[in-house]
Amino acid sequence: MKKSIIFIAALMIQLTAMAGSRFNHDTDQADKKKMTPEQRQEQRIQFVVKMLELDDATAAKFTPVYKEYLKEKAALYKNGMQRQAPKGNLSEEDADKYVKERLALSRKLLDVREKYYTKFGKIIPATKVKKIYDMEQQADTKMRGAYNNRKAAESHKGPVMRNNVRNDKHGKPTTMLPTNPQKIMAVPETDKK
Predict the structure, then answer these.
(1) Distance CA 126, CA 44 (A)
(2) Run of H or E residues at 35
(3) Is it the case that residue 112 has pLDDT exceeding 70?
(4) Residues 6+ apart with CB under 8 A from 32
(5) Nearest 5°: phi and psi at 165?
(6) Quick check: 41 and 70 in contact, CB under 8 A?
(7) Cα–Cα distance between 53 and 131 in angstroms, integer?
(8) CA distance linking residue 3 with residue 10, whole number of Å
(9) For 66-88, what is each residue's pLDDT tens digit?
(10) In the chain, what percentage of residues exceed pLDDT 70?
(11) How far apart are the first and last CA of the chain?
């Protein structure tokens, strides 16, 4: 009996924690959607300064250069770096044209990164510049994964599961917990010898 009470208590604590973390995640997402691009950029700069553990004097020198860097990168992305591959069957000419455009844009991005590697190197050590580039790569990978997950969810015909919650056929979230309370409270018996 004690085992089942402990099990139920642990289950209730876990469910409460999951619900709380889901609520915080949803409110964080809502706050991010309300932010302007300038506010997001300032938040990103503050994050990078904190991540690099820059003192106030170094941060004052680094921030305007990092803003320039972000501005140049944003211009590249706006001018086609984020363009998706054409769908369907492509002719050889169209495929060749698309690949060459992507390579040219990748080269331009590399040029910007090399240019700012030199500028950053005058303010911070190379190890910290590496941290910036590593963080960018991780963020890009995470964004690509989120985009792919969203696309997969949109193309999925059935209910989509996220954090033990799925949408029913009416689009309302439902938990994936067993509906039979006996299944929740069942504690396996062990052989007593």
Answers:
(1) 20
(2) none
(3) yes
(4) 40
(5) -125, 135
(6) yes
(7) 11
(8) 10
(9) 999 999 988 887 776 556 666 77
(10) 59
(11) 19
Residues 115-142: tens digit of each pLDDT: 999 999 999 999 999 999 998 888 878 8
Look-up: residue for tokens 């060749």?
96
Q: How many residues does the chain have?
A: 193
Q: Name the residue among 13, 11, 9, 33 with its Cα closest to residue 21.
A: 13
Q: Which amino acid is at 133?
A: Y
Tell me how crowded residue 52 is: count the other CB atoms within 10 A of its CB: 19
Round the average pLDDT of the chain to a whole number and report it. Answer: 75
Residue pair 7/187 in contact (Cβ under 8 Å)? The answer is: yes
Q: Which tokens in the block code for residue 67?
A: 């803003």
Phi, psi of 174 (to 5 degrees): -135, 150
153 vs 159: CA distance, rounded Å: 9
